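// run 5 | inverse folding | seed 20
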């Protein structure tokens, strides 16, 4: 496991970023550099660096990320218009922060899935 990232400090509210959601397994907050009007990060409270580090014991947490995404998409009013969920892994995946996070992106028609 690599060291904790800034996301652990946000989850523990040592850095005062407003939380849109938090329970015993996951937290959600807005991306500091939103690419579209709705750009939310949904993260496990536990530090898991990448999807390569997910274990069977994390299945409940990974599933919770999706149910929280569904709730937040509705709360943001993008559930019917549509949105995209993205999880980047390692360098080729474009991962910058090594604490798994699901991007929830919406609020406009998104471009092609991949920019190569
Ligand atoms: P990645 O490229 O790792 O999938 O995405 C990392 C995301 O975290 C980026 O979209 C970036 O803007 C966001 N981010 C990085 N540092 C912070 C921070 O301190 N606070 C918040 N809210 N978002 C951050």
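// decoded
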């Amino acid at each position: 496991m690599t060291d904790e990232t800034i996301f652990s400090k946000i989850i523990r509210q040592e850095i005062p970023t407003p939380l849109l959601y938090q329970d015993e397994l996951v937290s959600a907050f807005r991306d500091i550099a939103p690419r579209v009007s709705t750009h939310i990060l949904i993260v496990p409270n536990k530090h898991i660096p990448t999807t390569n580090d997910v274990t069977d014991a994390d299945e409940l947490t990974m599933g919770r990320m999706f149910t929280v995404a569904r709730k937040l998409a509705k709360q943001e009013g993008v559930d019917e218009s549509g949105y995209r969920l993205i999880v980047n892994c390692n360098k080729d995946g474009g991962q910058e922060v090594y604490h798994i996070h699901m991007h929830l992106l919406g609020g406009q028609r998104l471009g092609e899935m991949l920019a190569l």
